[in-house]
Amino acid sequence: MNSQKTIAILGTGNMGLALAKGLVKSNIYEPRQITLTRRNTAILAAMAHDGYQVSDNNAAAVSQSAVIVLAVLPQQLNKLLDEIKDTINPEKQLIISIITGVNCIDIREYLNLDVQVVRAMPNTAISIGESMTCIASDNASVMNIALVKELFDTVGETIQIYEDLMPSATALCASGIAFFLRGIRAASQGGTEIGFHAHDALKMAAQTAKGAADLLLQLSSHPENEIDKVTSPKGCTIAGLNEMEHNGFSSAFIKGIKITAEKAAMLYKKS
Question: Which residues of the chain are modeled with pLDDT < 70?
Answer without folding.
Answer: 1-4, 270-271
